[in-house]
């Protein structure tokens, strides 16, 4: 299934309605009116190494890329979006105002992961979560944008299950090329995944990796 540039006809959801699958188009629509600005996506079942090792599993990407590249990663938040219970949408919320965080119904952000020592950009992601599925302290830590999502969940011992949904062949558009230091038209791979917290669908993910560097 090839998904060309364009816009979906369905509205953005808090989380995908099925609770079993991640709606890639809905995630992309959070930040892209023209999907081709980021990339073109083709659904695949088999992917080459090293992408298979990096993506084809039921584990947190934070842990996986840190093991693969042999060093910790930091998160860089490029854009964020808070949707409030009263219908308002904000592109940036002051995390020093807990009342704004507590009123958030859905939170989406576009990020990259960067290795701490070598400063290599190794992953792009779009994350959408339901704050009500998390404890207040965990949600506020995630919203701070200072710690990768997977590390927050692990360090807080959140009962979680990572579900790999789909694998994607990704042809870089201008924005992905800029974020991952690629050339337009380069082919990399990604996945959509769902994280359940305390058995409840809580976090939807699009995760795209460069695949550079040795396996440690």
From TrEMBL:
Q: Which Pfam families does the record associate with it?
A: DUF4388 (PF14332)
Identify the InterPro entries for this entry: Chorismate_lyase_/UTRA_dom_sf (IPR028978), PatA-like_N (IPR025497)
Annotated PatA-like N-terminal domain ranges read: 46-187
Q: Which SUPFAM superfamilies match?
A: Chorismate lyase-like
Entry superkingdom = Bacteria
Q: What is this protein called?
A: PatA-like N-terminal domain-containing protein
Task: State the taxonomy lineage.
Answer: Bacteria, Pseudomonadati, Planctomycetota, Planctomycetia, Pirellulales
């Amino acid at each position: 299934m090839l998904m060309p540039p364009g816009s979906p006809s369905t509205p953005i959801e808090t989380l995908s309605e099925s609770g079993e699958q991640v709606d890639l188009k809905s995630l992309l629509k959070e930040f892209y009116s023209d999907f081709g600005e980021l990339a073109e996506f083709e659904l695949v079942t088999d992917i080459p190494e090293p992408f298979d090792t990096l993506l084809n599993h039921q584990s947190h990407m934070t842990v996986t890329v840190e093991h693969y590249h042999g060093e910790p990663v930091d998160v860089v938040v490029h854009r964020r979006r808070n949707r409030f219970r009263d219908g308002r949408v904000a592109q940036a919320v002051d995390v020093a105002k807990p009342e704004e965080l507590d009123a958030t119904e859905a939170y989406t952000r576009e990020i990259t992961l960067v290795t701490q020592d070598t400063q290599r950009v190794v992953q792009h992601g779009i994350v959408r979560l339901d704050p009500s599925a998390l404890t207040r302290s965990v949600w506020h830590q995630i919203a701070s944008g200072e710690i990768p999502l997977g590390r927050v969940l692990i360090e807080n011992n959140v009962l979680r299950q990572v579900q790999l949904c789909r694998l994607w062949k990704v042809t870089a558009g201008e924005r992905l090329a800029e974020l991952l230091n690629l050339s337009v038209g380069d082919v990399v791979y990604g996945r959509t995944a769902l994280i359940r917290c305390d058995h409840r669908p809580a976090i939807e993910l699009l995760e795209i990796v460069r695949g550079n560097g040795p396996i440690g």
